[in-house]
UniProtKB/TrEMBL annotation:
ATP binds at A43, G44, A45, G46, T47, G48, K49, T50. One of its GO terms (molecular function) is ATP binding. This is ATP-dependent DNA helicase UvrD2. Keywords: ATP-binding, DNA damage, DNA repair, DNA-binding, Helicase, Hydrolase, Isomerase, Nucleotide-binding. Residues 587-598 have a biased composition (Low complexity). Residues 303-559 form the UvrD-like helicase C-terminal domain. The keyword Nucleotide-binding applies. One of its GO terms (biological process) is recombinational repair. Belongs to the helicase family. UvrD subfamily. Its cofactor is Mg(2+). InterPro entries: DExx_box_DNA_helicase_dom_sf (IPR013986), DNA_helicase_UvrD-like_C (IPR014017), DNA_helicase_UvrD/REP (IPR000212), HRDC-like_sf (IPR010997), HRDC_dom (IPR002121), HRDC_dom_sf (IPR044876), P-loop_NTPase (IPR027417), UvrD-like_ATP-bd (IPR014016). Its EC number is 5.6.2.4. It comes from Streptomyces cinnamoneus (Streptoverticillium cinnamoneum).
């Protein structure tokens, strides 16, 4: 056996089904062993949800309770599906299908199409923009490149929400969408787009789901075949399912309920694509007897980061907030989050780059550092600051600023205007200085003094052009005698300087693109009103989604977390900006926020049918402080508060636990953890009611071990013990 076999890249396959469960915490173990009936896993950020569900599948397969070919696990990205398949192989369950919704549906559609419809499946169009452009031309609707992308996005939203063209205007109005064109025009383009596809025998990405739903609804024989094949379903990131994906899942299930869903309503940040947490929040209503397991033990972030994340959600309102989970860090303490207020955006970027350099010099790898912002147009100033500091970086989920089409196009126009010689160009005749010349040129490509309403491609394009205008203003402020040609040369130099190697680089990403990732150090920048929440977030629900976006950003950090904002855009500007309202009561010197919705999610645990219970925050029984550390919650006191430990009882409990673990063939923590034993030895409960109030003693453990523990607390011998602790090592055969 080579050394590589022992590395984390090549872990050993567990020797048995029981070995699959080794190392899982109590709640993860509940997930892994709940193999029948509906199961809902409410999993907070960093709580090991993928670990829990892959071990659940593997345990079922290795124990013989699940056939690998009968399990279908679905998620939302190819990366997540690939990771799930890899973990299942490492656990000895390689025959399980783990796919995206679209991949699973396409596979079924390709197989059943000849039988259901006849002939070959229509060709799948990867990019629908060209056909949308043709549809717009037929409707005599002129769309520029950015409007074309936005209208295409509206068509995609309509299809995943199962909205037909004639219903689009009413549906868009009801959902409060900021539409890029007149809704009637979009409906006309949508209808013509569908007609063009039919004429050419084409289907798009959304059609794959729609057609699979249609086949399963209309052909009961095909639906029965699929249901005989797949009898157990697992859905990851369930808060992100669209109505169309939910309908497909229901058709796969039929009248069965062997379904396990995993999600967190507090991480719903893609509602603009049609995703909704309602299916997750309504799961218990649809399945009254479901097992609900809450994962709140955060293995990713330090208690300091977790405390801030919990504080953000404590202010949240609305239905998703009512089911929020209060995370409990399982890591050691780290540095407190750092808050930074800067005079202007360049100063914020320079300060961030300086702190990044300090972290790298202290030993934090550049690839373990991320700078996260609300919109992609914010990246340019950070790209420049990192380049100036000699720090390599990479952009995720967006093109580099100087590689964006609108920026390249603007560069060509400015270069042409500079060659033409300023005032010889009619459009620059009234421009008195370089910034005026830039504004005049870029106004022909979509720049306006005020930003456009709404979000999407039009707003992103405007933000990019506005960044060039600001750059011109800053450049001339530093060099009053500069010409337009000098500015073009500066742009070329900046574009060239930022093409640094990115193999080991700091990640620059939007908050949306950062979902599902994590780093040792995270910098959340540009946290001002108008940017987070974004200006066009008007309704209460839209504002709450912006709060969740910041929550996702905070929970990406393992150890180091920095939050910053600038009071003005440019040096010397009026300091009129305000830090985001989401940090009120959390950052030093800010006023306390209004209370949010009461949390029903609360602490971790298991619920089996019946009514859900609400629990408040854990507080120290000595000083009354709110507890967030996992060990402190177990003890129900601060680590440094006085302890009333009965040391003799604690030793008797440890000996009893060792014997129980030996008889059960399980690790000692599966009986009770050290912290739970300490809590018992401090509280010395005399009744079952007092014992079950101790964290870590649930109903099942009360039934199994309660009589023994109460006997030990009363100074008696455990009634169910076969041998005493003193003789157990002498008589291992017992």
């Amino acid at each position: 056996m080579t050394a590589a076999t022992h590395s984390t890249l090549f872990p050993q396959v567990p020797a048995s089904a029981d070995a699959v469960l080794d190392g899982l915490d109590p709640e993860q173990r509940e997930v892994a062993t709940a193999l029948s009936g509906p199961v809902c896993v409410l999993a907070g950020a960093g709580t090991g949800k993928t670990r829990a569900i892959t071990h659940r599948i593997a345990y079922g397969v290795r124990s013989g309770m699940l056939q690998p070919s009968s399990v279908l696990a679905v998620t939302f990205t190819n990366r997540a599906a690939g990771e799930m398949r890899g973990r299942l192989r490492q656990l000895g369950a390689g025959g399980v299908q783990a796919r995206t919704f679209h991949s699973a549906a396409l596979r079924q559609l390709q197989y059943f199409w000849p039988k259901a419809v006849g002939g070959e499946l229509p060709r799948l169009v990867d990019r629908k923009v060209q056909i949308v452009a043709e549809a717009a031309a037929r409707c005599r609707v002129r769309l520029d490149r950015n409007e074309l992308r936005d209208v295409t996005g509206e068509i995609e939203w309509a299809k995943v929400t199962q909205t037909v063209p004639e219903d689009y205007p009413a549906a868009a109005a009801k959902s409060g969408r900021e539409v890029p064109r007149d809704p009637a025009e979009i409906a006309g383009v949508y209808g013509t787009y569908e007609q063009l596809k039919r004429e050419r025998g084409l289907i798009d990405f959304e059609d794959v789901l729609l057609l699979t739903v249609g086949v399963l609804q209309d052909r009961h024989d095909i639906a029965d075949t699929v249901r005989r094949q797949y009898q157990h379903f697992v859905v990851d990131e369930y808060q992100d399912v669209s109505p169309l994906q939910q309908r497909l899942l229901e058709l796969w299930l039929g009248d069965r309920d062997n379904l396990c869903v995993v999600g967190d309503a507090s991480q719903t940040i893609y509602s603009f694509t049609g995703a909704t947490p309602d299916h997750l929040l309504n799961f218990r209503t649809r399945h009254p007897h479901a097992t609900v397991v809450k994962l709140v033990r955060d293995y990713r972030s330090t208690p300091e980061v977790v405390h801030l994340a919990n504080g953000l959600l404590s202010q949240a309102r609305g239905r998703a907030a009512e089911s929020r989970l209060e995370l409990v860090s399982q890591r050691g303490h780290g540095p407190q989050p750092v808050y930074g207020e800067y005079a202007d955006e360049p100063a914020e970027a320079e300060g961030t780059a300086r702190r990044v350099r300090e972290l790298i010099d202290s030993g934090v790898p550049a690839s373990e550092i991320a700078i996260l912002y609300r919109i992609n147009a914010q990246s340019e100033v950070y790209e420049q600051a990192l380049a100036d500091a000699g720090v390599p970086y990479q952009l995720r989920g967006a093109e580099r600023f100087f590689e964006r089409p609108e920026v390249r196009e603007a560069g060509l126009l400015l270069r042409g205007a500079a060659r033409a010689g300023g005032h010889s160009d009619p459009q620059l005749a009234d421009a008195e200085d370089v910034p005026s010349q830039v504004r005049a040129v870029l106004s022909t490509r979509g720049w306006t003094p005020e930003p456009p309403a709404g979000s999407g491609a039009v707003r992103d394009r405007w933000e990019s052009l506005a960044a060039l205008v600001r750059l011109a203003e800053d450049f001339v402020r530093a060099r009053p005698d500069a010409t337009l040609g000098d500015l073009v040369a500066e742009l070329d130099e900046r574009a060239s300087a930022q093409h640094a190697p990115t193999v080991e680089g700091v990640t620059l990403a939007s908050l949306h693109a950062a979902k599902g990732l994590e780093w040792d150090a995270v910098f959340l920048v540009g946290l001002t009103e108008g940017m987070l929440p974004i200006t066009y977030a008007k309704t209460d629900e839209q504002v709450e989604e912006e709060r969740r976006l910041l929550y996702v950003g905070v929970t990406r950090a393992r150890v180091h977390l920095s939050l910053s904002w600038a009071l003005s855009r440019a040096p010397g500007g009026r300091p009129s900006r305000r830090p985001t309202r989401f940090l009120n009561g959390l950052r030093p010197g800010s006023a306390a926020p209004r209370p949010g919705s009461p949390a029903a999610g609360g602490r971790g645990g298991v619920e089996r049918g019946g009514a859900r219970k609400r629990r408040g925050s854990a507080r120290c029984r000595v000083c009354g402080r709110t507890l967030t550390d996992a060990g402190e919650i177990k003890l129900m006191r601060c680590e440094d508060c006085p302890s009333e430990l009965d040391e003799g009882l604690y030793e008797r409990l440890r000996d009893w636990r060792a014997e129980q673990a030996r008889q059960l063939g399980q690790p000692a923590f599966c009986v009770f953890t050290d912290k739970t034993l300490l809590a018992i030895a401090e509280a010395v409960p005399g009744t079952e009611a007092e014992l079950v109030c101790i964290s870590g003693v649930g109903g099942r453990k009360l039934d199994r071990f309660g009589a023994d523990v109460l006997a030990l607390c009363a100074g008696k011998e455990p009634t169910s013990a076969d041998v005493s602790p003193d003789t157990s090592e002498e008589s291992p055969e017992k």
